[in-house]
Specification:
The protein is mainly alpha-helical. It folds into 3 domains: 3-129, Fumarate Reductase Iron-sulfur Protein, Chain B, domain 2; 135-290, Glutathione S-transferase Yfyf (Class Pi), Chain A, domain 2 (Up-down Bundle); 304-414, Rossmann fold. 53% of the residues lie in helices and 6% in strands. It has 23 helices and 7 strands. The strands form 2 sheets. The protein has a 4-stranded parallel β-sheet. Strands 5-6-7 form a 3-stranded parallel β-sheet. Strand 6, helix 22 (386-398) and strand 7 (405-407) form a beta-alpha-beta unit. Helix 1 (3-15) crosses helix 6, helix 14 (193-205) packs across helix 23 (408-414) and helix 18 (281-290) crosses helix 19. The protein is globular. The N and C termini lie far apart (68 Å). The relative contact order is 0.12. Bound molecules: iron/sulfur cluster (2 copies). The site of one iron/sulfur cluster has 15 residues, from helix 5, helix 9 and helix 10.
């Protein structure tokens, strides 16, 4: 057995806890999770059933932690977790799952299937069975601080543009600021207008905020690839920067995965509670609205809809806040079918966007989003996740659909009262 396979098997064994045991013991093989997963509904391939994606972890649990499995192991009767299985499952676990959480919502016995797939990734990555694109992104996150290789000078250049365009100052490394804003590499490189939008809104509302030059990246490739040690290291960088600047609240930007990583997984990863709060930018903006610090003018008359990012709406519970904000500037808002916590994924979360090999299946399953949009035919789509925004644009282009994507924060800034 190769050293990396041995490491992978040990990592899978370490993943087995009471939650995993309860999961596999209670699964009644009803198949309901299949109909909740866009990778199954759009391909009809039984291998894309969510429960099937956890097979390597199931085999380890059965063989090592059940009486029948232990007996079977003695007589060599168990199905093995070997290189062949891991190689076959790599695409199922990484390319055909966005960790969107939809399957976990429907399981009648309450199994968090998404968590099991996430745990399966831990063993796969340790054994060396992870996509090249995601390995590269994770290396860049550790070495450079950004999965896309965005260095501080690139951020500083974008900040300079914002300051020239708005005549406002973007506060950097301000000790004692109330809020510390994180950004995603996707925003810095592809949607830098969001920095200007936040600067304008916060300036108008009199918010005390800053960006840290030591920890500005929100995305966490360690979670996506399934290496908890790296995920914890990336969280710790943010914790250290927030401590150094004496920050009260860290703001996750328009990045669904970044929000999940820092708000819900962060304290568990580093093994202790944060001494600051974490809020998504949309939550902060809605708090400003409630406090009467956000005043807008003019209404959009075009038909707008909102794409609920999985990690913000379903996994994060931030569902009403974006709608409260959209209502401030839209008089023709329509909901997609299955909106809110049961919205369908853009198809590119959970590291799929960093994995070029998954492009084909990602675009194939975009049919589900197309069907949703065809029912309401919006003039434009608003999102609060830059990854969703980029890959919805990609999918729409592939399917010949001419529907613009808008950032919630940027659209709100355009409607700010003078
Ligand atoms: S988390 Fe989402 S993409 Fe992954 S198996 Fe479940 S429903 Fe499918
Ligand atoms: S929905 Fe739950 S019980 Fe049914 S097959 Fe999937 S994991 Fe098993």
């Amino acid at each position: 057995m190769s050293a990396s396979l041995d490491k992978g098997l040990n990592t899978l064994k370490e993943q087995v806890d009471s939650t995993v045991a309860a999961f596999f013991s209670s699964c009644v093989h009803c198949g309901m999770c299949a109909d909740a997963c866009l990778f199954y509904t759009e391909t009809n391939d039984p291998k894309n059933t969510p429960i099937t994606k956890t097979e390597p972890l199931r085999r380890i649990w059965k063989s090592e932690y059940t009486l029948l499995g232990r007996i079977g192991k003695i007589f060599g009767l168990n199905k093995k977790v070997d290189e062949k299985l891991l190689s076959e499952w790599e695409t199922l676990v990484y390319d055909s799952c966005t960790l969107c959480g939809r399957c976990s919502m429907v399981c009648p016995v309450g199994n968090d299937i998404t968590l099991m797939i996430r745990k399966t990734r831990e063993g796969m990555a340790a054994a060396g069975y992870a996509p090249e694109g995601l390995i590269g992104a994770t290396k860049r996150a550790v070495e450079i601080g950004s999965p896309m290789g965005v260095k501080l000078p690139a951020l500083q250049a974008q900040i300079k543009h914002v300051e020239e365009n708005t005549g406002l100052t973007v506060p950097v490394d301000v000790e004692g600021a109330e809020y510390m804003l994180l950004l995603s590499s996707m925003e810095i490189m592809h949607f830098p207008e969001i920095i200007g939008a936040i600067t304008k809104i916060f300036n108008k509302a009199g918010v005390s905020w800053t960006i840290s030059t030591e920890a500005f990246e929100a995305t966490n490739s360690g979670i996506q690839i399934g290496v908890s040690d790296i995920a914890a290291e990336l969280v710790q960088r943010i914790v250290d920067a927030a401590k150094k600047l004496k920050i009260k609240t860290v703001i996750s930007p328009e990045c669904g995965h970044g929000y999940m990583a820092i708000r819900w997984e962060g304290p568990n990863l580093i093994g202790k509670p944060f001494n600051f709060k974490v809020r998504h930018i949309v939550e902060v903006l809605d708090e400003l609205r409630k406090d009467g610090r956000l005043k807008t003018k003019g209404m959009e008359t075009q038909k707008l809809t909102y794409h609920d990012p999985c990690q913000i709406s379903r996994r994060g519970g931030v569902i009403n806040e974006p709608r409260n904000l959209i209502n401030m500037f839209s008089e023709n808002f329509v909901e997609m079918p299955d909106h809110g916590k049961m919205n369908w994924c853009c198809g590119a979360g959970g590291g799929v966007s960093a994995n070029e090999r998954a492009d084909k299946i990602r675009l194939e399953v975009f049919q589900r989003k197309k069907d949703q949009l065809d029912e309401i035919k919006p003039d434009a789509i608003i999102s609060a996740c830059s990854n969703c925004r980029a890959y919805l644009e990609d999918g729409l282009e592939e399917y010949g659909m001419d529907i613009p994507l808008l950032s919630l924060t940027e659209t709100l800034a355009e409607h700010l009262e003078d």
